[in-house]
Amino acid sequence: MPWFGLGVFKVAEGPELVNAVKTAIKHGYRSIDTAAIYQNEQGVGKGIEEGLKEAGISREQLFVTSKVWNTDLGYESTIAAYEESLKRLNLDYLDLYLIHWPVEGKYKEAWRAMETLYKEGKVKAIGVSNFQIHHLEDLFQDAEIRPMINQVEYHPKLTQKELHAFCKEHNIQLEAWSPLMQGHLLENETLKEIANKYNKTVAQIILRWDLQNGVVTIPKSTKEHRIVENATIFDFELTNEDMTIIDGLNENVRIGPDPDNFNF
Fold this sequence. Notes:
By secondary structure, the protein is α/β, with parallel strands linked by helices.
């Protein structure tokens, strides 16, 4: 799985979405993350098809993720939702399929379906999203296969250290959604100071911090210059001191819903 990819949350169907995916592929992105609830899988699929053609690369060189929505959690319904996502994306398989939210009483049956999809070779990897430690421990009780990925809200104001340590211990790769806190961190003075020191943007500093923490990251953007800029994070390294300063910004503040208290 690539360490870096493009997220498309809140990007509506249409030319802007198709272009964003094509642009990302053109500039070397090899991971695209979507979900059924984003209602944009069709446009993502079109962007992938055109982007692969223009870049002259094969489908196998791209890592595509989607997620099953809460209303489809269940054994048969999760398998059906997977097939529907494939149809909309116009793909033969997904590289990663995730349970989007830990809906109580529903995610275990859905996980059984994920295991079936994986065993049948229909998906290359399976995982979860927004699962806390207790959700994972609960899932472990009945799971034959453990989740390979846990995609969670993760940024300097929400470092989730305990969850990260737990995932590492159980060989689950942590992946960050909303790594830039939907833009709320871009004016942070501490991050601006660090960015000036490296002659980088605040976004690049945060995304580099993700990587050095061993966290896969998928920032969202539709603008070409941002897509390029976000990916320019492999040509420098943050010092241990700066990593510690960024860690110190944590306030356990969420921009998204609380996985222990949501009603959708």
